[in-house]
Amino acid sequence: MAIQYIQYSQQQRNIPPIQFQLRKCFWGFHTSSNLSYFLEKVDFLNPNFSNKIRMAVTSCPYIEELVFTIPRIDSIKHLSGLKNLTFLYIDFGVCDDNYLSEFVSLLVEIGPQLKHLGVVRSNIIPINVAIENCPNLTSLKFSSAVDKTNPEMVSSVTTSRLKNLTLDKCDKFSLLYALSCCTNLKELFIFDGSCLDDNLLNTILDKNPLSELKVAYISKCRLSGRGLRNFLISAKQLDTFFILSDELFLCNEDVLLQELNRVNTCKSGSKLLKTEIFNQKLNPCCF
């Protein structure tokens, strides 16, 4: 529903503010659309955008799931008024502001109520901000090229609630931190695992053997056959996996599975990606 329509309906003829019963909303625009080529001409990027978001929050207080492409950081504070929000997918790709402190402040307020959080196209938010301020998360998607996760914090926090983790373009400290924290992880998707080699994997497994992991998708990593063997031995519950690494070109995965007496299913990457929780949640046929 257009924010402009909500604003219009509240201002006409002194009608009391309307409260819609919407449970799922998309605010912003899809960044793959033609609008992304004309950002300077898009109306909602103007200084009144924050006020429009405030009105939208007032008019849609029952929202449980929100996808938000944020162009101006001054609008993010209004999301704290969504007391029923449990799913937040926020895209910082068109936000040029320094938004770290505002985002942390938002998570301090609504983090405990969130069950699913997606933070994408950010280059300043470290992953520990999401994990430490959202103790009840069951699913987290994090896409950030930031290299600010403190390596000394790797063992400071653990979470048994987080079951689904999706990572993209994370540095090695972020990867080590996240996989060390998530002691009851069921599904892991890593889209750009260029920092994941055998040594880093062994360090991760020493801290968290990933013994509850059932599904793993790891692309563009640097694991060798030895690393894959160690991974399969440690992740005893692993049922389905897809691992793409140039170092595996000499490794026959079927032979390795037979050697380990495992019945794991090695799926094609495209099929496995369809099961990732955020792909399912954001599917236009479902949302």
Automatic annotation (TrEMBL):
The record's section on InterPro entries has: LRR_dom_sf
State what protein this is by name: Uncharacterized protein
Q: Which organism is it from?
A: Caerostris extrusa
Taxonomic placement: Eukaryota, Metazoa, Ecdysozoa, Arthropoda, Chelicerata
